[in-house]
Amino acid sequence: MANYRRDRINDEMLKEVAIVLREVKDPRVARAFVSVTAAEVTPDLKYAKIYYSFLGESDPKEVAKGLKTAAGFIRGQIARNMNLRITPEFTFIHDNSIKHGAHIATLLEGITFSDDEAKANEDGED
Fold it and tell me: What gap in Å lies between CA 112 and CA 91, rounded to an integer?
C-alpha cells in the first residue's frame, strides 16, 4: 500500500478514535479526559497503535485497563464510521509527550537573565 494512503488512514483513524472516546462510558476513561496524540496502522490494516495521553490525577494503569476494556466498543464504532475492508485491532500506548512538553515549557519560563545579559541581548551582542 502506498505511504500516502496509509498516512491518510492514520489521520482519519486519529480523528475517529478521538470522537469515539467521548462516547466511552467506562469511568476510568471518562474521568481521565483521554486525548489521542497519534495513530499508526500497519500496512496490512490488521493492527493499529493508538497513542494517548490524559489529564487529571487518574492512575495510568487504570486508564490503560479502561481503554483495553473499551477496545471492542471502539473497534465497532470505527467499523461503522470508516469504510475499511478490515477494521484493525487496537493497542493503546500511553504517550507522555504533552506532559513532557509542559514540563520543558515550565523550565524555559523559569530561566532569568541578569541585567548585563539582558542589555547585551538588546544591543545584539553575544
Answer: 43
Of 88, 97, 93, nearest to 9 by C-alpha is 88
Give the model confidence (pLDDT) of 19-54 as tens digits. 999 999 998 988 888 889 999 999 998 999 999 998
The CB-side HSE value for 33 (13 A sphere, CA atoms) comes to 3
Q: How many angstroms separate the Cα of 81 from the Cα of each of 9, 30, 68, 70, 87? A: 13, 21, 20, 17, 10
CA distance 39 to 91: 10
pTM of the model: 0.76
Residue 70: alpha-carbon gap to chain centroid: 16
Question: C-alpha cell of 73?
Answer: 466498543
End-to-end CA distance of the chain: 51
Q: Residue 117 has what pLDDT? A: 64
Q: What is the pLDDT of residue 125?
A: 57
Show the DSSP H helices in the chain as ranges.
3-21, 27-30, 60-81, 97-109, 115-123
